[in-house]
Design brief:
Radius of gyration: 17 Å
CATH class: Alpha Beta
Bound molecules: uracil
Strand order of the largest sheet: 5-8-7-6-9
Mean pLDDT: 96
Order of helices and strands: EHEEEHEEHEHEHEH
CATH topology: Rossmann fold
Shape: globular
Number of domains: 1
CATH architecture: 3-Layer(aba) Sandwich
Largest sheet: 5 strands, mixed, barrel
Distance between the termini: 15 Å
Number of helices: 6
Amino acid sequence: MDGYHRRMSDERQYHIGFGRADLGAEPPTIVLLSGDPNRSTHIATDRLRNHRVLSENRGLNSYVAELPGGQTVLCATSGMGAPSASIVLNELAQVGVRTVIRIGTTGSIQAHVEVGSIVISSAALCRQGAAADVAPVEFPAVADPFLTVRLAETAARLGITHHVGITASVDTFFEGQERIQSSVNPTLLRHLQGMTEEFRALGILNYEMEAATVFKLSSVYGMRAGCVCAVVAQRTVGEQVVTTVKADAINHAIDVAIGAADGW
Ligand code: URA
């Protein structure tokens, strides 16, 4: 996989705000990549040991910290959506990252994928614009199979309710996930009407906003990627995020990501 990695750089990266020289003698090659900067801070400061701030530039909070087994890991932030994630992934590849574990939140579109559980994406339907700048639309948005199995085995070992399957990654939280009641926009384009039902019938588990781009770009940039998301909305019931379960579900997703990264 290292063979076709494009370019390494010693420069401080413009957006993430750190470079290889900031990573110490044993630079981490794994990143725990959260959409939310506060989640990155929480993982580094509350869930791991000996954290060090790398940058809190543009809300793309980045830290280096130690996994339970002592190995160093990056905790970094993708921001919301594919364009921001694409920039962060490119720069992370340039500072030597080889394994990406996305830790996100998601809305289930299947009745059996309940709020509070987690989804581990084996692949993603890519309805995302940024990835089309990097590879043809037909390029597979697929997780690394070994990392995916490791995430699923970790979830099973920890007794965390989890589902492994295909995710739909889209560019908008409202229209692109067929939200109408909670959206300012009463007009849903015809090609989006009925999409959720169609995706459900195809066996797609959930909606989120970064996985497909993370998978495609990681393949092109020579990195392995996996994705674990906390289910915080149940679209067979309603459009809203269920805030009462959010913290526990995210902590379960973090437990799985840390457990899988440890010793990887
Ligand atoms: N993130 C999403 O993209 N959709 C949801 O419904 C919840 C979180």
